Amino acid sequence: MRRALCLLLFCVAACAAVPTSANAATAATCPGTFQVLHNDRIGALKLPAGGYQILATGLSCQQASSLFTRFLNDWDGVLPTPWRVVAPRSQFVRGTSNINFIVKRVTSPATAGACPGTFAIYEPVTAAGLKIGLGQWALTVSGGLSCTTAFKVFAQTADANLVPPGWTVDPATTTFRKGGQSFTAADVGPAPSGIGRSTGTQCTATFSVLHNDAIGALKLPKGKYLISLLPNSGLSCPVASDLFSSFLRYPNGKLPSPWVLDAQTGTFTRGKGSSVGFLVEPAGNAK
Question: Phi, psi at residue 258, to the nearest 5°?
Fold first, then answer.
C-alpha cells in the first residue's frame, strides 16, 4: 500500500512568486524547499527522502510545486498528459514545449539549527495536550536530528492527532523529544493559500492501491482511486492522500480518533457530522 508521500514546505516568499511567461527560457530558482518524507520514485527517477529545490521554466513556483505533489502519486512514471519525466535530468516536461521544472536534492541540517521551509496547518490539531493552530510552522532541530525526520514526525502528528510512538511532546514549549534528539515547532505566520491545497474539489492525481485491500466494510480492490475533498473541509489533496494511506493500515475499520468512515459512500470525516474529510472512489467510476 502507498505510504505518505510528501509535505509541501515553502517559505512565505514562495506564495508571492510571480509566474513566469509561458515562453520563458530561463529557469527560476524557487525559494524554500520541498520535503519528500520517504524514499520515493516517479518512474525511473529515484527520489531519496529529503529536501528538494525546484527550478521552474514557464511556470510559477506554486504551479511547479503543486505538479510535483501530484506526480509523486504516479510512482509508475505515467504522468497526466501531456507531462513526462526525464529521469537523467530530474526534469518534468510539458509535451514538446519549453515548459518544465527540475528538482534538485539539497542537504538538510543534521546537527542543530533552523530547518529550511515551513509546514502549513490548515486545520487546528490537538495531540497529547499540544495544540497546533492554523498557520505556518517552522522547525528547529537539535541532537543530530535531521530536518526530514522532524518534518515527518510533525506531519504524522498533524495528520493523525497522535504523537508517533517513541516520541514525547512538551505542550508548553512545543518541543518533541526522542532520546537525545529533539525539535521545536514555532508558529511563524498565517498559512499560505493555494499551494497544494484545494477545497471542495476532486484531487487531480490518482492514488494507487497496490493490493486488494479493505478498511472495515469498505472494499478496495487493487487499482487507481480518485480522492475528492468535502466542501469547506479545509484539507489539502496531499494531506487527504496521506490520511488515506495511513487508514489503509486499519483493515478492521477502527480509525484513529476522531476519524470515522461511512463505508457505503467511501467517506472519511473527522468525527460524525463533520465537514472535514474526503471521499474515495475507483477512478473508473468517476464521471
Answer: -100, 15
pTM, 2 dp: 0.43
CA-closest candidate to residue 6, choices 111, 151, 121: 151
3-state SS assignment for residue 66: helix
- Cell numbers 512545543 correspond to 174
Distance CA(33)–CA(53), nearest Å, equals: 5
Contacts of 68 (CB under 8 A, 6+ apart): 6, 34, 52, 54, 92, 101, 103
Residue 134 · residue 190 · CB < 8 Å? yes
Going from the first residue of the chain to its last (287 residues), give the mean pLDDT of each consecutive group of 10, the final group possibly shorter. Answer: 38 36 61 71 86 86 82 80 92 92 73 70 77 84 84 78 87 91 87 41 77 92 86 74 89 90 88 84 64
> How far from 147 is each of 75, 185, 283, CA to CA, in Å?
24, 12, 35
